[in-house]
Specification:
Structural class: alpha+beta
Radius of gyration: 17 Å
Helix content: 25-40%
Shape: globular
Distance between the termini: 49 Å
CATH superfamily: Gcn5-related N-acetyltransferase (GNAT)
CATH class: Alpha Beta
Strand order of the largest sheet: 1-2-3-4-5-6-8-7
CATH topology: Aminopeptidase
Largest sheet: 8 strands, mixed
Number of domains: 1
CATH architecture: 3-Layer(aba) Sandwich
Order of helices and strands: EEHHHEEEHEHEEH
Length: 201
Amino acid sequence: MTDRFEGRPWRKSAPIETRRLVLRDFTFDDVARTALYAGDPAVARMMAPVPLPFTEAHASAFIGDVLASNALGGGLGLAVARKREPDALIGTVTFAGEGAAVEIGWWFGRAFWGKGFATEAVMALIDVAFQAPHLETIVAGAFADNPASLRVHEKLGFRIIGHSRRTSAARGCAVDHIDMALTRADWQARQSSASEGTSGA
């Protein structure tokens, strides 16, 4: 019998460890922290689908949806925590899609901004995503008034491919959005360059 997850190696990837972080499966013990951090207006306003207020009921539904999507194999959504507190969620990174492209997104609690956690976590998940041989492109983006997120995209090698308008549930209106993409070829070139820099250091 053919495995319906064939070509989607990410389904068995978690937990993923980086230098400072662990990317692990969600549990419903993460509901309170998810509601607290995603429900911060400064965070929610930068994510298209998150309403305000964002309650624990919303957080529970979100976690349930992520777990269901993970089980179906169409993507991967993980809770992010620091290694020293692996049960204490500080953010999340997810990707999902069909065919040769997936869309990746992430958010972190405001207390954890400016520490490089997003770059570290997203880099690890991009590595996992590109383990799928059929995947050629990862698409992403950020609202135009979110320069910190746009800098993370740029650090990771994403390129601007267009501009659009997306509805922000928290703001209740459409907002200018920068559309970005990262190809497998660009990611491999970036990784090769980083490896050569390390070996020559």
